[in-house]
Design brief:
The structure holds two protein chains of two kinds. Chain A is an all-beta fold. In chain A, 0% of the residues lie in helices and 59% in strands. Chain B starts with a strand and ends with a strand. The chains are: A mainly beta, B mainly beta. At the A-B interface, strand 4, strand 5, strand 9 and strand 10 of A face strand 5 and strand 10 of B.
Chain lengths: 110, 118
């Protein structure tokens, strides 16, 4: 089935640095969403960007969307140890099914 | 609001037994989704309901899986008979009516049910 594919699969950085995760997808979408999952927990919605939007901000998060390239990026600025988690992009397809990628595992070292 | 509530949190059962997972969505959310998460396959959409009606069950692995939503505040996912390969974390999520192109909000997920079939 069509999925977003995150890149990289794993990312390790130092506290205070910025973290960038990328997502590519295959077909037209209504919107693209990013979620965070702490180990052993459920998914938490972070930010949603509609197909007609190019950039969106929420606190330390910045999301971009390029529908011509079918790609998105999530930037976390000034990372903290508490940002350690897996991050997933999810594409809301025209059929209104939300399909998830395999995720990026982010480790922020204190 | 208490969020999406799933029960049980953990379930260990023997192969061949029936398993029922439960979900209470957020009040006012009219769409409900069942996902399964494994290391190998990631997050898979099993089935989703809109206004209590099953819309797409193409992700349900086989006839051993069934889901119901008898009212707006309750849904079940049943596996009968269960097999070891069904071991996974099962998530329920709900969303508001403003989805798709007009969406402003994402889905709200429950804490999941960790199912182990031995």
């Amino acid at each position: 089935s069509q999925q977003g594919e995150e890149d990289p699969q794993a990312l390790s950085i130092q506290e205070g640095e910025n973290a960038t995760m990328n997502c590519s997808y295959k077909t037209s979408i209504n919107n693209l969403q990013w979620y965070r999952q702490n180990s052993g927990r459920g998914l938490v919605h972070l930010i949603l960007i509609r197909s007609n939007e190019r950039e969106k901000h929420s606190g330390r998060l910045r999301v971009t969307l390029d529908t011509s390239k079918k790609s998105s990026s999530l930037l976390i600025t000034a990372s903290r140890a508490a940002d350690t988690a897996s991050y997933f992009c999810a594409t809301d397809l025209l059929s209104e099914k939300l399909v998830f990628g395999k995720g990026t595992k982010l480790t922020v070292n204190p | 609001d208490a969020g999406v509530i799933q029960s049980p949190r953990h379930e260990v059962t023997e192969m061949g037994q029936e398993v029922t997972l439960r979900c209470k969505p957020i009040s006012g959310h009219n769409s409900l989704f069942w996902y399964r998460q494994t290391m190998m396959r990631g997050l898979e959409l099993l089935i989703y309901f809109n206004n209590n009606v099953p819309i797409d069950d193409s992700g349900m692995p086989e006839d051993r899986f069934s889901a119901k939503m008898p009212n707006a505040s309750f849904s079940t996912l049943k596996i009968q008979p269960s097999e070891p390969r069904d071991s996974a974390v099962y998530f329920c999520a709900s969303s508001r009516p403003d989805r798709g192109r007009l969406a402003n909000y994402g889905y709200t997920f429950g804490s999941g049910t960790r199912l182990t079939v031995v």
